[in-house]
Amino acid sequence: MSSPYYSISEYYKDTYGEKVYKLPIKLSLTCPNRDGAACYGGCIFCSESGGSFENLPSYLTVEEQLEENKSYIGSRYKAKKFIAYFQNFTNTYMSLDEFKEIIKACNKDYIVAVSISTRSDSVTEDKLIFLNEWSKETGKDIIFELGLQTANYKTLEILNRGEDLADFIYACNLINKYNFRICTHVILSLPWDDIKDVRQTAKIINALGVKEVKVHSLFVIKDTKLYQMYKNNEFTMPSKQEYEENVIEFLRLIKKDVAVQRLVGRAPQEETAFCNWDTSWWAIRDEIVEIMNNNGFVQGDKSERIIYDKIKGV
Ligand code: SF4
């Protein structure tokens, strides 16, 4: 089955000449959306683990986590090149000195890039200036992962994101000054969004020069506010078919060179009350690919058509 979208593995091969794997690193951190700096309580869908289920304990140093994960992932997949991936919580929510230390610990010959998950309101220029110097000195690429989830500010309020679209635009503009890559997380089965919100989210991503996306459906994790809302029937979860239609529309609208990290997220069954309509992530991905291939849809075909139609109309 040929891929109708530009997958991240294709991007890695185009850029690094071979497969590249992420080495997750967990730090002892929190998030300004939990401790009151931005908001209390965190996003309604976020678990106590802060966004990932597959990490080594945070008491291990960055170097220990890199080495341990490399020896496991490296031997399993015969991998040689890796990305140091600061995944949980807000990985710029610390002093500049602390930040420098964790980044400097990633200066290994097997690391080709450092990926930093953070919030838009926590991207500051002092850290970008340091990263710019460090990247030039070491040759490592820098990727920022920012959660947008949706361009709909009303939905962002329901999600208790503690930041809005303007924060995201501000952070992207700041990061783009230094030419670092931006990866954006979006949730395309939000009960409060419709297809117009999906389209708007895709167009915002194009407009801000985002280079990678991670697409998720909405999970209901058991220790969250969303779980309480789910149990109280406070919203209707969109169907799998609606999710697939949203993902396809989103892919058709984003530019062809935006690398897609994933089309469906995953979470352990025992931790969730609702996850991917009890369907495996790869089955949903395959259905999306099949629908696109059967209809001749490819990533970016609508993005180009919009521009073409506009030019024609001049
Ligand atoms: S910003 Fe990220 S880490 Fe913080 S509460 Fe929201 S999802 Fe969780």
Explain how this protein is built.
Residues 15-262 form the Radical SAM core domain. InterPro entries: ELP3, Elp3/MiaA/NifB-like_rSAM, Radical_SAM_C, rSAM, rSAM_horseshoe, rSAM_sf, YhcC-like. This protein has helices at residues 8-16, 62-77, 96-104, 125-138, 153-158, 165-176, 195-207, 225-231, 240-253, 281-295, 301-312; strands at 20-25, 81-86, 111-118, 141-149, 181-187, 212-216, 220-221, 259-262, 272-274. The protein has a seven-stranded parallel beta sheet, sandwiched between helices. Strands 7-9 form a two-stranded antiparallel ribbon. With 314 residues, the protein is an alpha/beta fold. Residues 31, 33-34, 42-43, 46, 50-51, 89-90, 119, 147 line the site of iron/sulfur cluster. Iron/sulfur cluster is lined by residues 31, 33-34, 42-43, 46, 50-51, 89-90, 119, 147.
Layout of SSEs?
Blueprint: H1 8-16, E1 20-25, H2 62-77, E2 81-86, H3 96-104, E3 111-118, H4 125-138, E4 141-149, H5 153-158, H6 165-176, E5 181-187, H7 195-207, E6 212-216, E7 220-221, H8 225-231, H9 240-253, E8 259-262, E9 272-274, H10 281-295, H11 301-312
Parallel strand pairs: 1-2, 2-3, 3-4, 4-5, 5-6, 6-8
Antiparallel strand pairs: 7-9
Helix pairs in contact: 3-4, 7-9, 9-10
Bound molecules: iron/sulfur cluster (SF4).
Organism: Anaerococcus cruorum
InterPro entries: ELP3, Elp3/MiaA/NifB-like_rSAM, Radical_SAM_C, rSAM, rSAM_horseshoe, rSAM_sf, YhcC-like
Domain Radical SAM core: 15-262
